[in-house]
Amino acid sequence: MTTTAADQASVPGPGDTTGTNSRQTAPEPVDENVWLEDIYGEEQLAWVKEQNSRTEDLLEGSGYDELEAGILEVLDSTDRIAMVGKRGDWYYNFWRDQQNPKGLWRRTTWESYCTDSPEWDVLLDVDELSRAEGDEWVFHGATFLRPAAGEPYRLALLALSPDGGDANRYREFDVEARGFVDPARGGFDLPTAKGNVSWLDADALLVASTADGLPKTASSYARTAVTLKRGEALAAAPRLFEVPEDHMMAMAAHDSTPGFERTFAVDYIDFFNRTNFVLRDGSWVQIDVPTDVNVSAHRDWLLFRPQQDWALDGTTYPSGALLAANFEDYLAGSRDLTVLFTPDAHTSLQSWSWTRNFLLLNLLKDVSSEIRVLDPSRPSGNTDGGWAATLLDACPPLHDVNAYAVDDEDEAPADGGAGDDFWLIATGFTTPTTLMRGTLEPGNLEPGSAGTSGVVSRHAVVKTSPSFFADDDYEVEQHFAVSDDGTRVPYFQVAPRGLALDGQNPTQLSGYGGFEVSRTPAYSGAVGRAWLERRTTVSEGSDGKAPHSRGGVYVVANIRGGGEYGPAWHRAALKENRHRAYEDFAAVARDLISRGVTSPRRLGCVGGSNGGLLVGNMLTRYPELFRAVSCGVPLLDMRRYTKLSAGHSWIAEYGDPDDPEQWEYIRTFSPYHLLKDAVEYPETFIWTATSDDRVGPVQARKMAARMLAMGIPNVWFHEALEGGHAGASDNRQAAALQARSQHFLWKALAG
């Protein structure tokens, strides 16, 4: 993801040929900043360092150091919840703090975890590893090998990134020996690359990788999956699965659930279309569904979630529904589907999680959480033939609550296991995160009830996060703006109680609007300290009050392109309809202004990645609405985004700029090409990371360079050398990143 009126000179593209039936490629505008696309070039990095120094000079003083320290205190707090994942008898956690900036991978027992001061068994000190090996390792997770029956979990593959980017090195680790398994003795050690890895058995892996000369797709991801045995070179491993070069990526994984062992492969055609296969008798068998139907397997069951309406054997299943079928029956040709969830105008399915015997559905109802528990062993008693469902009483209004299994592969509770236990994580804008644990069991059958009494659930609080700002001083409201086409767009407003509606409140508007990602309520001590609790003095307002101190207002917009109302809400802003996401965001801005919450002088917006593209369009299409724009790790040059980093993989979201017809609409939301002379633009801060191998730093660099060359005032740029797409690989980097953005906005809006 020259001048402002760039010449439309034709530049030959990769699709150009000279034949009479050749595919025409859209011309590329003259780009005076192509030289900045050499990410690690000496001259280019010198330009970056010069801009970084200039921006850091801007941020010095005015309380910046105190702000950064306050955010770092939140991130390093030892009182925050150490979230865990269960494997066997142990509960694993990855932890960063001031003494361990790169982090500790550690474990404890359940009994110890429930205490105020758990005793942690440290397995890997990433800071110590980095010092010993001379690499700035960033821990990206662990994948365990399922042990033989009765044996403990021991071997794991650790994903370690050398710079925080998406490319990982996978190394085998023995948790009992507290060290890596020596490759000279057959230990797995895969070169750094993009891809994924799955255990096939104790001596073999399924690997999709771009390392050692294995082919890449045009999106820079793995094109093949191989079976890698101990002691075998990756380049020599037999290929198991392959996808075309113009597809997004290949993936292979093994399900080791006892009694349900299966090997799967997925051909990701693009971001929203895929073909799923299961290995049978040495051959791949395709799971016969449309490519836009998401498929998942659990024991006896296949689940389906269509992205668009799915017509099957005379029945149409709506987009965003959840359907179930018996795995073996479906592969054998049966199309007997059970409807588990049907969306409506207010309610959408966000995710689901299986315990051993039950299914948890995480829903949003007008962007507030609702959780249902389904029992596949009992019919619902309704005419739809679904499964018995129970509403989980754990979701206060305007909060985000998610339920997922503790360990679905453990024994059932009746056998002394935790197989039907579940975690609940609840959070809200002014509610610190709470971790709960519960257990599910069938309800008692009433005589003659036909088994429809639902599920009994019990849950209790395990841990609570501390409060990092005066939560009770603020209130959360939900409002709805009306977009240009009449669509009602929800947004959350977090503001001091008794907010003066005089247009004088410094207001930060955040959004995303892409890839069916939902923006839900979430507690942020950093936002509380850096924005809500900061104070500025405003002059007498329309309410007649004398100059007085006030803090900031924080707003999150739930615009189209996201997933707040399911796939249809997302598809409404795809490709040629992208403008709807930007119209929605602008409608929220206007609603805040018309309600007196703020004014264009006091309103700023912030977004990252696709959200960076969003606020880039606010900068170029709606400059009159905003005083300041903070634009992070962004897509901005939509003519060349498919040629940069992993950009080719997002054609399904934005369109193909090489296609002349598609470029005609893409150019209308390409901020790099929408800049014009003689326009009063908001103050602009563009930030990125050199090591971002997903979006990359190039588009941010070029946008800043063009704006500076045009003489646009108050344009700032900063590029962190590490951190990948997140922009930070440890808490100190994260605190600096957040502080720079928040301080910039505050100076612009409250100064």
Mind explaining what this structure looks like?
The protein has about 750 residues and is α+β, with helices and mostly antiparallel strands. The protein contains 14 helices and 41 strands. The strands form 10 sheets. An 8-stranded mixed sheet has the order 32-33-37-34-38-39-40-41, with helices on both faces. Helix 2 crosses helix 14 and helix 6 runs parallel beside helix 14. The N terminus is likely disordered. It comes from Pseudarthrobacter niigatensis.
Give the structure's gist in a few sentences:
This protein is an alpha+beta fold.
Question: What is the topological layout?
Answer:
Blueprint: H1 42-59, H2 64-76, E1 85-87, E2 90-95, E3 104-108, H3 110-113, E4 121-125, H4 126-133, E5 138-144, E6 155-161, E7 168-174, E8 179-180, E9 189-193, E10 195-201, E11 204-209, E12 224-229, E13 239-242, E14 249-255, E15 262-268, E16 274-280, E17 283-286, E18 293-298, E19 301-306, E20 310-312, E21 315-317, E22 322-326, H5 327-331, E23 338-341, E24 347-354, E25 359-365, E26 368-379, E27 387-391, E28 400-405, E29 421-428, E30 431-442, E31 455-464, E32 474-482, E33 488-496, E34 507-510, H6 525-532, E35 536-538, E36 548-550, E37 553-557, H7 567-571, H8 579-594, E38 603-608, H9 610-621, E39 628-632, H10 651-654, H11 660-666, H12 671-674, E40 683-689, H13 698-709, E41 715-720, H14 731-750
Parallel strand pairs: 34-37, 34-38, 38-39, 39-40, 40-41
Antiparallel strand pairs: 1-2, 2-3, 3-4, 5-6, 6-7, 7-8, 7-9, 10-11, 11-12, 12-13, 14-15, 15-16, 16-17, 18-19, 19-22, 20-21, 22-23, 24-25, 25-26, 26-27, 28-29, 29-30, 30-31, 32-33, 33-37, 35-36
Helix pairs in contact: 2-6, 2-14, 6-14
